[in-house]
Hints:
Distance between the termini: 47 Å
Strand order of the largest sheet: 3-2-1-4-5-7-6
Shape: globular
Strand content: 15-25%
Largest sheet: 7 strands, mixed
Order of helices and strands: HEHEEHEHEHEE
Number of helices: 5
Structural class: alpha/beta
Number of strands: 7
Amino acid sequence: MNEYEKKLEYFVFSYLRKQSNPKILEFGVRQGTSTKKFIEICERNNGNLYSVDIDDCSNISNSKRWKFFRCRDDNFEYLDKQLTENFDLIYLDSFHNANHIEKIFYHYYPLIKVGGYFVIDDISWLPYVTDNYRNNFNCEINNRESFFKLLTISRTNNENFDLSFSFTGSGLAKIIKLNQNKLRSPKKVVSRALSL
């Protein structure tokens, strides 16, 4: 099992295997690694997967449990008409930019069932720093900004969801919805690290 599979197994798949009739929404398909696993779980547990990607990934599977939408994840006008269910899991692995993540999270969060998960991939910048094994400037900056963006959202919503992180590979954030309250806007976390 590679890093990617390990983090998904612990943070996502183990939860989904316990769900009957799981409803899953996935943003970002690429080669379909997570998509195929989600489909496998849906077929076993009588669930449904809805995947969104800007590239044509429709050849990943012909499962009757899978519906693919070729569009941007922020094409709200179109997707709001298509996605009428509440989800046990929303998995975000599309455009890794902190402001985009915030926009997608706030828009789709109301579609999660209480007790359901919103999982965001690529929140750890540690593998991408200069002296580490992935050494990539863009990924380092984007993942770090995404991590801190989630902290600012959590700061004003900690009674609405439980936030935890995995730092395996490029990292995952797992948000468990605790109630139906409307989310409040994020608030900057002011650090005293550089104060006297």
